[in-house]
């Protein structure tokens, strides 16, 4: 039974990501997120511009901490690529200010750590 579940899950993941524009890790090219999951490009990360992303894959979470950011103190956990252990950004666990609650459960990914793959095909 578990082999059937694993096969179905694998084909579902392939269907979800195959042929769609992606963000990948700039170090090891592991898939991190669909470009459709992008919420905003106007965020600041530790090392420059950041993207607010609704959901991501192939990331492992570090320890949670309260961090003072430009918009106030947030409870966040750094996230790391499972392929190469590169720090990719952070995950918003909790926002103290009511106006910042929309960030909870979302990812801030550093623009410089991502490769934008459009999956264009060239016709002959």
UniProtKB/TrEMBL annotation:
Record-linked InterPro entries: Yippee (IPR034751), Yippee/Mis18/Cereblon (IPR004910), Yippee_fam (IPR039058)
Pfam families per the UniProt record, alphabetical: Yippee-Mis18 (PF03226)
Protein's UniProt name: Protein yippee-like
Taxonomic path: Eukaryota, Fungi, Dikarya, Basidiomycota, Agaricomycotina
The keyword Zinc is annotated on this UniProt entry: yes
UniProt keyword Zinc present: yes
Species, as recorded: Cristinia sonorae
GO molecular function annotations of the record: metal ion binding
Keywords: Metal-binding, Zinc
UniProt family annotation: Belongs to the yippee family.
Residue ranges annotated for the Yippee domain, each copy included: 21-118
């Amino acid at each position: 039974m578990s082999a059937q579940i694993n096969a179905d899950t694998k084909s579902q993941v392939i269907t979800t990501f195959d042929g769609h524009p992606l963000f990948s890790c700039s170090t090891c090219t592991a898939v991190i997120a669909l470009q459709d999951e992008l919420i905003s490009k106007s965020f600041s990360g530790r090392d420059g511009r950041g993207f607010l992303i609704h959901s991501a894959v192939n990331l492992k979470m570090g320890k949670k901490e309260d961090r003072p950011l430009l918009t106030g103190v947030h409870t966040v956990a750094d996230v790391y690529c499972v392929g190469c252990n590169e720090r990719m950004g952070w995950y918003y666990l909790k926002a103290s200010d009511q106006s910042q609650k929309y960030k909870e459960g979302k990812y801030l990914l550093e623009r410089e750590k991502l490769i934008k793959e459009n999956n264009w095909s060239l016709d002959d």
